Q: What sequence folds into this?
């Protein structure tokens, strides 16, 4: 067993490796050529379309981009803050609702009903309406001791809307954990709450990372909906610019910023997920 | 001796630093039943997985009917279509009925028509005492029934070689017999099998060759009457003393 240092691959194995290497190179070449060819066709089609010069002027004007990128970036900062704070609230509330729906105790029946109704109703309402209702409606109530900041209420609306979606993601994760896991935790004498906390939810979360990320990315983009309240975020700034200058380039700039925000997040979660899988499934057959 | 069905030479497999198989040689002739015995971690399962190309070998060769299947140019699917494999944990698909489990590969990998695949599966299932469970989902069955269904699933593609990885290890003692029974029947019909097993008495009755693996090497191999009754190697004797 301990002759790892002594062992040298045989001629045959070396030949095999070089074949595998060649196969890898070949598939990389095919992948690259195909990608370049397809993208090239798309770009060529775009550039040769009759309206391209005008589209280029209105959407891809270098001057407008130079003029706007810094201001758009500053306005986008609001979207980023909104996203981060809302996400925390959404995860907490979403998990809470999901757990409420999976409880079995008779005493908690009203909680279950509330959770079900909440998800059904909230999911049915378009996010843009929720934001408008919260952003304009709640300050109009003139409630004592509550802020009238429309950004805050827009954030609350996002939390309400997304927690309904996210709770369903959590619930599907919780229900995918095999009953034998719950049985063995029960057999160890754990209470139902502890079983959820230490056995079920940790396993559920691992499985739902991709759909959760889906909702995160969606949320990042939906922070742009606060612009309907006249709050100065990236999208509102770009719309304003378009109205005054008749040039839509800042919108493209905003789009690029959104992509730059979401792609690293996606890669990071992929990476984390892969590490967990490797650690927990090493040698799984 | 004529060309063996399966010829393994100098097989090596390591997971990172840990060498699991080290210079394993093995010949399996058509109709032979080869039992791999050895302690947990001796490399029995890994050897089977390498034979089925589920794991990539690090050195050495495996030939099936004289053709090297460890050649990277060989399509592993074409090899696997000729072998059946049964796992310790059954690995039946829980979302399919027993019959669907058994017709999936014939229909989708071997392009057998639905009617023929079902007839073949029903016949085998009935023969192995599962006739009344064809439309049940696997989780409804007992462990022994599930494992028998898994054996049938592997047989439905009419494999040239059947690989079985400790197929009774997860079963209750009283259910072990029913699975070993069908393996005996298959052996009697001349099915070529390579099986990793802890059932020494089964190996003694059914095996044509017993291979004792120790620390990833073939320590001793030969007919059961020799390896299991009068072993040459000290390590084999120590192992048998522990398990018998």
A:
């Amino acid at each position: 067993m301990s002759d790892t240092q002594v062992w040298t691959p045989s001629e045959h194995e070396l030949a095999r490796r070089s074949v595998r290497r060649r196969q890898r190179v070949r598939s990389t070449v095919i992948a690259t050529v195909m990608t370049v060819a397809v993208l090239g066709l798309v770009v060529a089609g775009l550039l040769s379309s009759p309206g391209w010069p005008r589209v280029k002027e209105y959407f891809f004007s270098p001057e407008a981009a130079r003029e706007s990128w810094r201001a758009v970036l500053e306005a986008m900062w609001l979207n980023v803050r909104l996203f981060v704070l809302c996400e925390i609230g959404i995860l907490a509330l979403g998990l809470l609702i999901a757990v409420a729906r999976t409880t079995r105790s008779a005493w908690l029946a009203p909680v279950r009903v509330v959770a079900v109704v909440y998800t059904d109703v909230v999911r049915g309402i378009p996010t843009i309406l929720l934001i408008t209702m919260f952003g304009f409606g709640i300050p109009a109530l003139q409630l004592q001791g509550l802020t009238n900041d429309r950004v805050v209420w827009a954030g609350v609306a996002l939390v309400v809307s997304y927690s309904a979606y996210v709770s369903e993601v959590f619930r599907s994760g919780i229900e995918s954990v095999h009953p034998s896991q719950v049985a063995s935790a029960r057999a160890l004498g754990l209470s139902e709450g502890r079983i959820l906390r230490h056995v079920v939810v940790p396993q559920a979360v691992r499985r739902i990372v991709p759909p959760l990320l889906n909702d995160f990315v969606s949320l990042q983009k939906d922070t742009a909906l606060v612009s309907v309240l006249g709050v100065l975020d990236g999208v509102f700034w770009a719309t304003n610019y378009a109205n005054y200058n008749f040039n839509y380039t800042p919108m493209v700039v905003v789009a690029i910023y959104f992509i730059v925000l979401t792609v690293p997040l996606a890669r990071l979660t992929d990476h984390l997920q892969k590490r967990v899988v490797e650690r927990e499934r090493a040698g799984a057959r | 001796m004529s060309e063996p069905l399966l010829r393994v030479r100098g097989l090596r497999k390591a997971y990172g630093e840990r060498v699991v198989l080290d210079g394993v040689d093995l010949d399996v002739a058509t109709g032979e039943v080869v039992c791999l015995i050895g302690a947990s971690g001796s490399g029995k399962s890994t050897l089977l997985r390498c034979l089925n190309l589920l794991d990539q070998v690090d050195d050495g060769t495996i030939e099936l009917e004289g053709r090297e299947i460890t050649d990277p140019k060989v399509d592993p699917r074409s090899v696997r279509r000729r072998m059946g494999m049964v796992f310790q944990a059954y690995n039946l698909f829980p979302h399919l009925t027993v019959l669907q489990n058994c017709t999936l590969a014939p229909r989708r990998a071997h392009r057998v028509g639905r009617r023929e695949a079902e007839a073949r599966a029903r016949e085998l299932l009935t023969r192995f005492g599962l006739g009344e469970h064809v439309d049940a989902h696997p989780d409804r069955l007992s462990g022994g029934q599930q494992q028998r269904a898994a054996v049938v699933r592997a047989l439905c593609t009419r494999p040239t070689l059947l690989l079985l990885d400790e197929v009774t290890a997860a079963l209750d003692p009283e259910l072990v017999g029913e699975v070993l029974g069908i393996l005996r029947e298959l052996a009697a019909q001349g099915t070529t099998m390579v099986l990793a097993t802890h059932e020494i008495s089964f190996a003694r009755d059914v095996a044509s060759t017993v291979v004792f693996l120790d620390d990833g090497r073939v320590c001793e191999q030969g007919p059961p009457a020799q390896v299991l009754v009068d072993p040459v190697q000290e390590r084999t004797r120590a192992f048998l003393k522990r398990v018998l």
Notes: Residues 94-159 of chain B form one domain. The longest helix of chain B spans residues 173-188. The first strand of chain B starts at residue 6 and ends at 15.
